[in-house]
Amino acid sequence: MSEPRVSAVGSEGAAAFSRSEMMIVAAARELAGQRVCFVGVGLPNIAVNLARLTVAPELELVYESGAYGAKPARLPLSIGDPTIVTGATAVVSMFELFSFYLQGGLVDVGFLGAAQIDRFGNINSTVIGDYEHPKTRLPGSGGACEIAINARQVFVIMRQSKRSFVERIDFRTSPGNLGGAEAAARIRREEGWLGRGPSVVVTDLGIYHFDDAGEMRLDSIHPGATLEQIRETIGWEPGVAEPLATTPAPTPEELRLIREQLDPEGAYTK
Amino acid sequence: MSKVTSMRDAVAAFVHDGDIVAIEGFTHLICFAAGHEIIRQRKRDLTLARLTPDLIYDQMVAAGTARKLVFSWLGNPGVGGLHAIRRRVEDADPAPLELEEYSHFGMVGRYTAGASNLPFFPLRSYFETDLPKANPLIRPIRSPFGEETVYAVPPLKPDVTIVHAQRADADGNTQMWGLLGCQKEAAFAAERVIVVVEELVEESVIRADPNRTVFPGLIVDAVVVEPFGAHPSYVQGAYDRDNRFYRDWDAIAREASTTQAWLDEWVYGVSGRAEYVEKLGAERVAGLRPSGEAPSGSVDYGVYK
Fold first, then answer.
1. Domain containing B65: what range?
2. Between A42, A91, A174, which is nearest B129 by CB?
3. Out of A80, A149, A178, whose CB is closest to B179?
4. Is the pTM of this model over 0.90?
């Protein structure tokens, strides 16, 4: 079951690509220039590994399972895959990882997925519905709560839909810009957080950064996506940058790496 | 004195109804063999603690061994949800399941406090989240040395911690490599410890590489030799995660009837791990071996007389 592929507008001869591939490529490119990245489960895993092979060869991958400087020889099946151990710089206990590496302030980017996000980048990965009697019980925090607080900045990658981009999240698992940038900055300072909060949200339709009020603003739209689709899949009226950029389509090399090396079975891209 | 015993005897002697049980191991070294023996012995009313309940606790919950979960990430890693647990939580089917929920660092901190005999563990997490509301045992605490407030979690002291490892000697001196998770903390925090190993080695093997010892026999009550005991999870250097099973479980666990049928066939229907491995078949087992070797270099500790 594969999603329809789109051809990049105005890029004649470019290979067709899926929305998931565009999302992964866009997320990987955002990691250019970053050094230490804490890798979450799922989509972040493939985006970060693509970044390491393209725009960010110096990227040190940190997995909450305890691997630092991982050099996975295949796409890890999970964040605890044995391939992140063999050839890593260090393998440490989870106590060390969370205490010294994360809480100690060594992580530049925490890369998270989520079930729900609001306009301020607050994240829910715990429950849909009421906590005591949930409609859907989701996995919960894992390390996401402390990553959002202690990583210097947070990147989010998730597919857009009305169910996931919501006016009010059902449960705040990981804090973003709370109710707005000003209050969030004050609270972070008072409570001694190391993190500055979310800085980018990459979806299957576009790339959002955060404006001065701490709200998501659409800065780039992916080729083939429309503003109408953006609005249909978001639970509030999003700010849109003027002028709005178009995300450069995936290059043949980026697509080759995803299809042949990182995800030949299409686990993340179907 | 040798602590080597069978899985059946170890579970019968050291796991009791109503216990807090921690079968730890983060993706790596998850002792399914012990979980299955606990199911076969029909232990009841257990509080199951683990950062990631994984398939092992989904199976143990489906089998009716547990009344409560203490955890931080409830999923089938890389695949999806844990359906037997979700039925209990979302539909109270066939009975409610009590949840006590933390983050990973919170759980690691709980074991650390338990292992080091402290009344709490402080951490910079949970600020401005709903987790302290969901779990009132996550509490803010003011620093005695300044104005700062952090959060505290209480110690977790399992009645029994079960750890799978590459090797131990007969006294329970235990060595492992690869992802270490929080097995050390969970073992030191526990009242009783069962170690399950791929290989039983001479004490001299342990003493030749003391930096690799995760905990000593001093805290170990039983040593069980059960090769392939972590399947379908993995053991670094010995076998890979059986991802096919992780995906298969997603379909099996969606219905109570297929879940019970699986338990009947693969847990109640076998006498122990050896029969389970035989049932898996040589081909399946061989297919999980690493594709090559990656030995560590050796170091010289030196002789000092």
1. 11-103+157-286
2. A174
3. A80
4. yes
